[in-house]
Specification:
- It contains 6 helices and 7 strands.
- It is α/β, with parallel strands linked by helices.
- The chain is globular, with a radius of gyration of 16 Å.
């Protein structure tokens, strides 16, 4: 389940699999929602979402916007989220900009997840180092200490948001 999350933000909808999984975690909550940004329409997304149970399908709000544009609009609208999954453009500067917006949109103590920090064709790993240099602790979930180790070359970085509300629209709950 969602461990208390009600509202989740996602960048990079693509085929909608992550949004569907996130919706399954929050759909049971009265205001459960997943807001997902992606300006492109991908094959299979609509079919996948149509196959979801109605409460899960209703929890997904797809906004056909670039993630930075959409996140800035959400910030200006005073929106607040309990968690964010950043998974759009796999470029250091883009991820860094998304993270800075997410830190203002996600409530203090909420999770900001960054997908693909180990992706060999991107520079997400450098963005993760910048996030650490900015004073955030980053847990890396891509290697196993025991059991069967599997490395798909993608990974997930988990950051706990430490910002609290500032004048001008940053999130707090």
């Amino acid at each position: 389940r969602s461990n208390g999350c009600v509202a989740v933000l996602e960048t990079g909808t693509a085929r909608g699999v992550s949004a569907a999984c996130l919706a399954s975690a929050v759909a049971h909550r009265a205001s459960g929602k997943v807001v997902t940004f992606d300006p492109h329409d991908y094959p299979g997304r609509d079919d996948l979402w149509a196959a979801l149970p109605p409460p899960m399908r209703a929890a997904i709000e797809q906004r056909p916007l670039d993630s930075l544009q959409g996140m800035q609009a959400a910030l200006e609208a005073g929106e607040c989220y309990d968690a964010a999954l950043l998974d759009s453009v796999h470029d250091e500067e883009h991820v860094w900009q998304e993270f800075q917006l997410a830190a203002r949109l996600v409530s203090p103590g909420g999770l900001i997840l960054v997908h693909d920090p180990c992706l060999p064709t991107g520079s997400v790993g450098r963005a993760i180092r910048r996030i650490e240099e900015a004073g955030y602790g980053v847990a890396r979930l891509w290697t196993a200490e025991s059991g069967e180790q599997e490395d798909d070359g993608l990974g997930l970085a988990v950051i706990t948001n430490r910002l609290s509300r500032q004048p001008g629209g940053e999130c707090s709950q």
